[in-house]
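Researcher: I'm preparing a figure for a lab meeting and need a structural model of a single chain. I don't have an experimental structure, so a prediction will have to do for now. The sequence is pasted below. Please return the structure as tokens so I can convert it later.
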Amino acid sequence: MRLDAHQHYWSIERGDYGWITPEIPVLYRDFLPQHLEPHLHKHKLDGSIVVQAAATLAETDYLLALSEASDTIAGVVAWLDLADPDYRTHYERFAQHPKFVGFRVMIQEMPDANAILAPSFVEALTFFAEKGVPVDLLVVSHQLEPLIMLLDRVPGLHAVIDHIAKPGIKDGLLEPWKSQMSQIAAHPHIYCKLSGMVTEGDHDSWKPADFTPYIQHVLEVFGEGRVMFGSDWPVSLLAASYDDVVAVLEQALPEAWTEPMRERLFGLNAKEFYRL
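Model: Understood. Here is the structure written out token by token.
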């Protein structure tokens, strides 16, 4: 199975995507399965994992309904507010849907990432760790220190880092991101998505080589069994085409990478992680 492990769908008229405005014309329109399917077909991808893009329960309901009408949606990553006393009730409702595969924690949006170390937050993630529920972690590189502390407190968490933790690719910054990702990779249940990289580079003048040291470090520390290709389409359109996103990753793969290793990167790891 070949999969795009990270992309989004939205309908602007729904009104719960406050970050998508007319000032961002490339994104300010509907993006639905029929728009992605030509790209999936071209790159011989069987389907995708659709990830929430709005912090609302209603958007997750919308994506789950969308998945019922599209065979290319292999799974939906939901939104849950772990500060909501009813988060377990919402989880149990979503979990009844056959295409629910996990949920995402949007650390990126937190004014203070240390909030993830609050006892109630640790307790909530411990609950999901004990159940083995897949968790996406949306985090920016400057937030990695508290995340490392969190993973030490919830060592069994079955999670994936989205967008290689958004390092400073535009400025060529490798440290402390590089060292911190090595620490994170030491946790055997943590995976990493090679996604969302082009939008961390210079949108107008990036070069494939800009991303190579970041990609190769992730491949080195997480290994062939805990990495996933994700397009982050359509957000990626801010900086690159779908073809460009695939090419950036392909060109950075070490020559020693075999076809079975590529199959893990381009689908099998996502299939196993999300228990499809």
